[in-house]
Amino acid sequence: MSSIREPKLFALLAEFDEAEKIIEAAKLARQAGFEKMHAYTPFAIEELSEILQTKRRNWIPAIVLAGGIFGGLTGFFLQYYAAVISYPQNIGGRPPNSWEVFIPITFELTILGGAIIGALGLLILSGLPQLYHPVFAAPEFRRATQDAFFLSIESKDPKFDETETHDFLETLEPVDIIGVLDRRTGSER
Fold this sequence. Notes:
By secondary structure, the chain is of the alpha+beta class. It has helices spanning 19-31, 46-52, 60-86, 99-126, 162-171; strands spanning 8-16, 37-40, 149-154, 176-182.
């Protein structure tokens, strides 16, 4: 028999009506020591992405390199197996292992392997497709694609305390502060 857990607070969401206000709010929140912050805006704001940027290692180049090496080796050894082991033929006096002939396909599969594995790696590391996120349940959040700017501070943040964080957000003079609950059943968050 499964029990349904009470929804826990996922984040506090501060709503702003101007881009300049959310940029300033994000700067002040970063200076206050908050780390787990996200911004939701109707258009891209370059300054905001720089402020909210977390220090994480970028694994995409290594994943693309690994995919390219895998694709290139696969292409080369597939041709080698076909020409030398499975069905060797003497055409024009060339040796069966004429590696120069294998270069175009090897190159093409290197590019293809890097592109496919890189795209899949990007999706996986980005957590996409994300069909549900707790902020989607906030009724005001639908305006994030129209005319409102939202800054969320997650409850997983080491500095997060519900009362103190709420008081801090009030000092930023938002239009509204919304508590976002994580309504997923069985969630350990």
